[in-house]
User: What shape does this take?
Amino acid sequence: MLIFILTVSVLILLALLFVVPALLKSHKLPTENFDQQNIRIARERMQELKREFTAGTMSQEVFDQARIELEQALAIDLSSGDAVPAESPATSSRVLGLILMVAVPLFAILVYLQLGRVDSLNGELAAAPAQQDAPGMNMTMDEAIAKLKTRLEQDPSNAEGWYMLARSYVSLQRYADSLVAYRKTIALVGDDADLLLRYADALVMSHGGRFAGEPTEVINKALLLSPDHPQGLWLAGMAASEAGKYQQALQHWYKLEPLLAGDAASQTEVRGMIANVEQQLTPQQLKQLQRNKPAAQTVTGETAGAAEITVQVDVDASVKSKINPSDTVFILARAISGPPMPLAVVRHTAGELPLTVKLNDAMAMMPEMRLSSFPQVRVTAIVSKAGTAQLMAGDLFGEVSPVKVAANTSIKLQINQVK
Assistant: This one.
C-alpha cells in the first residue's frame, strides 16, 4: 500500500512539473473584458458556421439551430460575466503553483483512501460503482430557465425576460413552451415585425416545418409592418412555395435578393431557391415576373453601418450616496419599437463614473440586430447591484429616448432614478 501511494505521488509531481513552471511566470491578460471576448468569439464562430453552410457540409436546419444556440449562449454570457482585470499579478500565479505542488498529491491520496478500493491492489476485482451523470449543458440550461421563470413570476411585466425565455425554449426545441413565452412578449411589447417573425419561426417548428395556417398569417402580418424585412420576405417566399404559389414566392425572393448585398452566403442560397421555383413556371409567366424584378440596391444614408452614439454618463447628486464603487454599470441601446434584446452594450464599474462611452454596430450580439438597423433607439444606463444587465428592484438607472441613430450622435445621460 505504501509503495503504491509513493509511486502515485511521484507520478503526480512529474505531471505538475509540466504545469507549474507556466504558473510561476508573470502573465498579462488581454485588456478587453469578458463581454468583448465573448462577442468576438461569437462572431468568429458565426463566420465558421456560415462557411460550413456555404460549403454544403451543414444543412439549413443544423445551421439555424447552431445559430440559435450561439445567440442564447452569448446572451447569458453578457448578462452574467464579470470584468477581466487588466493584469494578473505574478505573485498569485507563484502561490498557486506552490499550492498545487503540495495540495494535489495530498488530495489525491486522501480521496483514494476515502473512496478507493484497496482490495483491488491485491488482485481482487470489484465492480465499479455506477457513475452519476455529470451535469451538462442541458442541466445548466434547465437551471437557468427555472431561475428565469421564478423571476418572471415575481415580475410578469418583464418583456425582455419573456423574450429570453422564449429563445431558451427554442434552443431546447421545446417549441410549444416557446410559443407561450413569445405570446407573453408580444402582449407586452406589441406587434413588432422582428418579434412576430421569431414567433412565426417557432410556430413553423412546432408544426413540423409546415407554414400553412397561423405561421403564414403571422408572417404576412409582420410584412405589413415592415414590407422590406429580409427574414419576412424569406419566410413568406417559403410559405408561398409550400402552398404552390410559385409566382408569389418569386416576387418575395426577387425583392429579397438585392437586400442581401454583402451577405454572399445568404444571397447564394436565395438564388438557389429562386432557380428551383423558376423551373415550375412557364417561360411566359417567368418573363412577366422578371420584368418587375427589383434592381440591385446600394446601401446609403446615415445608418449604412457607420452608426455610433457617444454617451456621456453622470450621476445625479440625489442618488449618488446609493452607489458603491464596486457596482456594475451597463450602458445599452435598445430599439424603441422592436425586440427587447440590446443592440449594443458596454460594461463598466460605478467607480469609473462619470464616464464617456461609444455604442456602435461592432457591439451587436446578433447580425440582424445592429444599431444601424433602427432609425431611433432608447439609451439606458443601469447601476446594477446584482451585476446583470436586467433592471431589478434597488438598481439605479437613467434613460434618454428617443435617440437618433447617426454617424456622430452625442448625448448626455444622467442616472437619477431608483427601480
